[in-house]
Amino acid sequence: MGQLGELEPVPRKSTVEIVSDELRSAIMYGSLPPGAQLGEAELAGRLGISRGPLREAMQRLVQEGLLVSEPHRGLFVITLDEGDVEDVYLARLAIEREACRLIMERNRGEAVARLTDALDALVDAASQRDRVAMSDADQAFHEVLVSSSGSQRLERMAHTLLVETRMCLNALQDTYPEPSELVEEHRRLVDAIGDGEEERLLKLIEEHMTDSIDRLRVT
User: Fold this and answer.
1) pLDDT band at 1 (very low <50, low <70, confident <90, very high)
2) Right CATH number for 15-77 from 1.10.340.30, 3.30.365.10, 1.10.10.10, 3.90.1150.10?
3) Where in this chain does the record put each HTH gntR-type domain (predicted)?
């Protein structure tokens, strides 16, 4: 950002980027469920676009691993088996463990302030016992955690797991911890950062991820 009051160019998204975002969101929230086949004509009609940008957007999602191409059949939304789910959370653990380590080396105060805001949003969702809102707030908390590390590369890596993580969270709905337990898990992470206890923080983030894997194994 430039000096205060200085006008800067407003970023514009191409049609392909907008369509890619729409498809990711549909996969993330289950409108396009795991295993669903994507029909070009139907999707182009629903989105009000030509097939060209739709095809390009779908190919982006193939490259991201969210769609899979089956010869002579077409494109399908990926399905996540138990091994995939475990792999997603282990990858997140590697990223978020390093993010935690960097936070402890850098500006813990800023991280605590940002994470406290994210925690407040989770508390609000938990008070309403709204599982979808809780999943949103849970995911947003971890996005802030990685962002607070100051590493753009870690943030990019975490972003590639965004939709798969949300697909896992959708599967986790029936085994999600009680709202008060979920809030407490995240509050302990913020407290550990605030207290400057790196060893406790790293232990907590590992337990948080492995507990999620264990809960998903019983679904």
Assistant:
1) very low
2) 1.10.10.10
3) 13-80
